């Protein structure tokens, strides 16, 4: 893992997509196993504002 990264945000652009839940779960589990904090960003890109 890159040194200095301690937190990540998980964002999807919206809409239904097959396998999205599994993909997000995989990202979160991998990040947690690396000791990162994971934040979910609600409402797609609007959630960034």
From TrEMBL:
<dbReference type="GO" id="GO:0030388">
    <property type="term" value="P:fructose 1,6-bisphosphate metabolic process"/>
</dbReference>
<dbReference type="Pfam" id="PF00365">
    <property type="entry name" value="PFK"/>
</dbReference>
<dbReference type="GO" id="GO:0046872">
    <property type="term" value="F:metal ion binding"/>
</dbReference>
<dbReference type="InterPro" id="IPR000023">
    <property type="entry name" value="Phosphofructokinase_dom"/>
</dbReference>
<keyword id="KW-0547">Nucleotide-binding</keyword>
<dbReference type="GO" id="GO:0070095">
    <property type="term" value="F:fructose-6-phosphate binding"/>
</dbReference>
<dbReference type="GO" id="GO:0003872">
    <property type="term" value="F:6-phosphofructokinase activity"/>
</dbReference>
<keyword id="KW-0479">Metal-binding</keyword>
<keyword id="KW-0460">Magnesium</keyword>
<protein>
    <recommendedName>
        <fullName>6-phosphofructokinase</fullName>
        <ecNumber>2.7.1.11</ecNumber>
    </recommendedName>
</protein>
<dbReference type="GO" id="GO:0005945">
    <property type="term" value="C:6-phosphofructokinase complex"/>
</dbReference>
<dbReference type="InterPro" id="IPR035966">
    <property type="entry name" value="PKF_sf"/>
</dbReference>
<dbReference type="InterPro" id="IPR022953">
    <property type="entry name" value="ATP_PFK"/>
</dbReference>
<dbReference type="GO" id="GO:0006002">
    <property type="term" value="P:fructose 6-phosphate metabolic process"/>
</dbReference>
<keyword id="KW-0963">Cytoplasm</keyword>
<dbReference type="GO" id="GO:0048029">
    <property type="term" value="F:monosaccharide binding"/>
</dbReference>
<dbReference type="GO" id="GO:0042802">
    <property type="term" value="F:identical protein binding"/>
</dbReference>
<dbReference type="GO" id="GO:0016208">
    <property type="term" value="F:AMP binding"/>
</dbReference>
<feature type="domain" description="Phosphofructokinase">
    <location>
        <begin position="7"/>
        <end position="49"/>
    </location>
</feature>
<dbReference type="GO" id="GO:0061621">
    <property type="term" value="P:canonical glycolysis"/>
</dbReference>
<comment type="pathway">
    <text>Carbohydrate degradation; glycolysis; D-glyceraldehyde 3-phosphate and glycerone phosphate from D-glucose: step 3/4.</text>
</comment>
<dbReference type="GO" id="GO:0005524">
    <property type="term" value="F:ATP binding"/>
</dbReference>
<keyword id="KW-0324">Glycolysis</keyword>
<keyword id="KW-0067">ATP-binding</keyword>
<comment type="similarity">
    <text>Belongs to the phosphofructokinase type A (PFKA) family.</text>
</comment>
<keyword id="KW-0808">Transferase</keyword>
<keyword id="KW-0418">Kinase</keyword>
